[in-house]
Amino acid sequence: MRLGERTPLIFIDIPPAGEANGSATDTVMLYGHLDKQPEMTGWREGLGPWTPVLEGDKLYGRGGADDGYALFASLTAINAVRKDRLPHARCVILIEACEESGSYDLPAYVEHLATRIGELSLVICLDSGCANYDQLWSTTSLRGLVMGNLEVSLLNEGVHSGDGTGVIAASERVARSLLDRLEDSQTGAIKLPELKAEIPKPRLLQAERAAAVLGDRVFNTFPLKTGVSPLTRNNVELILNRTWRPGSRSPAPTAGPRSAMPATCCARSRSSSFPSVSAARRRPGRRRRRQAHARSRSAIRRQSHVQQCWGERGLGRAGAGAMARAVPR
Ligand SMILES: [Zn+2]
After folding, report:
1. Could you tell me the pTM of the whole model?
2. How far apart are CA 52 and CA 69, in angstroms?
């Protein structure tokens, strides 16, 4: 069905079969979505979002995961029950097409279908992952997301960095110290007690059982760069970290899917120093870093710095470009 210009929705109403154990008025909802995550970047050579590739028993391409299975799994499960001539309650299957964009069309459909859906006894949400294909997994917890933008402004207008550095605090440093109030920058632990939940005992036991089954697969299925290790080698802690404990997901990607954990975070640093500071006094490592740093500093001066600083002083884009060219390389 489709309400006006909204994304479409699939609604299937399956009457009860046999003599169900519960009340005859019980209704089970099976929910899923059929829209796909964005095509993403970082595909391995030879793979891509628009060219499906079968490698062994794995299919690579956009939409190979999340959440194409929901409709088929729902119908297959109900069919399996019916094939064995077992009773089941009334089932409604609801498959939306807006989930990856924030489900903004879903409330309108739920409202529109309220009388046809009826009173629900159980909602089964088929939109999660499994840790392996050897067991049947069920998701027992879901975390929400609190998102905000932090803007630090210390000046009414930009000034030349040679003028202001050392006099006015760098706004980035203020941002770092503010973020440190939320999160321990050494350990990643969230400091706000308001964001922490008490972990129920059964969930602790389940985390232990899951860690015993999975071992290092808890972390080694992630595409870690050489030399990168997980936050801890205790797999129970890792499972609890990613399920029951709050964690900072910053930096939030400014483009692309909000749920993505970017592979790279890029920041350019600039520090001023005095020419008489002797390079010979520095340790070799620091010297190399300083050489790289000097190169990036001059690159900044040639490019964005000149455009920003001089552009703001009224030279405009063309003037800033001329300044950028005039700065010797
Ligand atoms: Zn999904």
Report:
1. 0.68
2. 17
